[in-house]
Amino acid sequence: MTAKPLPDVTALNQIYWEGTKKGELRIRECDDCKARFRFAHAWCPNCGNVEPGWTRANGRATVTHFTVVHRAPYAAFEDVVPYVLALVELEEGVRMMCNIVECDPKSVRVGLPVSVTFEQRGDIALPQFRPR
Predict the structure, then answer these.
(1) Cα–Cα distance between 10 and 18 in angstroms, integer?
(2) ω into 82 cis (within 30 of 0)
(3) Confidence bin at 3 (pLDDT 50/70/90)
(4) C-alpha pair distances (Å), 129 with each of 43, 48, 49, 82, 126
(5) How far apart are alpha carbons 34 and 29 in whole angstroms?
(6) DSSP alpha helices (H): ranges in the chain?
(7) Distance CA 31, CA 44 (A)
(8) Which domains does the chain have, with CATH numbers?
């Protein structure tokens, strides 16, 4: 079986992936304006601070958008279709893309409360969400 793809670990996102290995979901938090945002930004999109900090999210979120994938995009996903690809909003206000796991895809709906869980893929622990 083909392995599922892994994200690239870079200097920009290394702290994020170090957190997931420890079971922590980390997000950026600006030290100046307190805006919170995804790990993919090197600077604060709200005020322009070029050295935003990090904080730990509590791991609770709500499904805002989703689709059920019935055709595997890669051979590595053939054994898991159908699966749910979703956009969730963390309680901290940050949106992120993920899979909704540990449930029947037919039970997923907009507004569903979910919590983070981590899928181990090699050296990476990938955040996924499951119904609360």
Answers:
(1) 11
(2) yes
(3) confident
(4) 27, 31, 30, 16, 10
(5) 6
(6) 14-21
(7) 9
(8) 9-57 (no CATH), 58-132 (2.40.50.840)
pLDDT tens, position by position, 30-49: 999 999 999 888 999 999 99
Query: What pLDDT does 1 receive?
Result: 57
Q: How many Cβ atoms sit within 10 Å of the Cβ of residue 16?
A: 21
Strand ranges inside 3-82, DSSP E: 25-29, 36-37, 53-57, 60-69
Does 124 score more than 70 pLDDT?
A: yes
Measured CA to CA, the distance from residue 2 to residue 10 in angstroms comes to 24
The residue behind tokens 């059920």 is 68
Q: Which tokens sit at 30? A: 């600006």
Query: How far is Cα 95 from Cα 65, in angstroms, rounded to an integer?
Result: 10
Q: Which of 98, 100, 87, 123 is nearest to 6 (CA)?
A: 123
Residue 59: closest CA among 20, 30, 29: 20
